[in-house]
Amino acid sequence: MNDYMVRAFAAEGMIRAFAVTSRELVEEARSIHNTSPVVTAALGRLLTAGVIMGSMMKDERDLITLKIDGDGPMGGLLVSADCRGNVKGYPYEPAVVIPANAKGKLDVAGAVGRGTLTVISDLGLKEPYVGQVELISGEIAEDLTYYYANSEQIPSSVGLGVLMNRENTVNCAGGFLIQLMPGCPEELTERLEDRLRGVDSVTHFLREGKTPEDMLSVILEDMELQITEKLPCRYSCSCSRERVEKALLTVGEKELQSMIDEGKAVELSCHFCKKKYSFSIEELHTMLLESRH
C-alpha cells in the first residue's frame, strides 16, 4: 500500500479527522539515517504527525516544524512538513539501543526522556507562530494531544504507531488525529471518548490490513463519516547546492577566511537526506568576495 492520508468530517462537521499510512516514508527515513529500532519508532511517529499537521496549512509555501528536545539518550528529533504531503526529519542520535519497556515494547519514552515539544508554523509572515509544551510522556502521540489541548485549545485525540520487523525494517506505520470543533455537544464528546477508549492501537489496525479510511470508519462508526480528501505522502528533502551555499554564507567572513586558510575543500552534509555538498577553495574564495559586496 502506497503512503497516503485521508481527511474527513463526521457528525455534521462537529468532528474533523485525519488518518495516514506511512510505512514507506518511515522506512525511507530509517534507511537514510540508519536508525536503531527505538529511534525509528520515535522518528516514524513524529514524521506521521508531521504529514497530518502539515496538511492543515493553506498555502503551498507554508511549513510546519515539530521539534522534540529531551534529556534521554536520543536527545531529540526534528521534523518538517508542508501541505502537499512532503515530510522530512532527523534524530539527534540515530543509534540508541535501550531495553524494552515494561510492556515488552520499544521504549520510545525512555529514549526521548523529559523535555519539550515545540511546534513552529511558518506561514510566510514576519515571525512564525511558535507553540511549546512540556513533554508529558515522551510517547509523542500523548504529547501532541496535550499540545493541542493547551496551545491550540482544541480537544483532540492523536494515535501514532510504528511496528518493526526483526531485521530492523519497518513493517507498518501510520496514525490518526480526531478533533472536536467549537460547539460540539457534550453528548457527542462523551460518545467519542467512549469509542476512543475501546480503540486498538494504530499498529493493530495496520497489521489487520486496515486502510486509513477503515481506521476512521471504526473510530467514527455511526457518526456519518465523510471522507473529503485523499493525499499521497512521501519523504522528500528540498535541499540543493544553492541552499547549502546560502547557509555557508551565514557563518560570516571570518569563518569563511578560516576555511580558506586551512587549504582544504569543505564538505557539508544535509541533516535531512545526508546528501553531501563539496566546495573547493576557489569556490569559497569567490563566496568570500561576493559576501563583501
UniProtKB/TrEMBL annotation:
GO BP terms, alphabetized: protein refolding
Cellular compartment(s): Cytoplasm
Protein's name according to its UniProt entry: 33 kDa chaperonin
Gene Ontology CC: cytoplasm
CDD domains in the cross-refs: Hsp33 (cd00498)
GO molecular function, one term: unfolded protein binding
Gene from which the chain derives: hslO
Record Pfam families: HSP33 (PF01430)
Recorded family membership: Belongs to the HSP33 family.
Keywords: Chaperone, Cytoplasm, Disulfide bond, Redox-active center, Zinc
The keyword Disulfide bond is assigned to this record: yes
Primary role: Redox regulated molecular chaperone. Protects both thermally unfolding and oxidatively damaged proteins from irreversible aggregation. Plays an important role in the bacterial defense system toward oxidative stress.
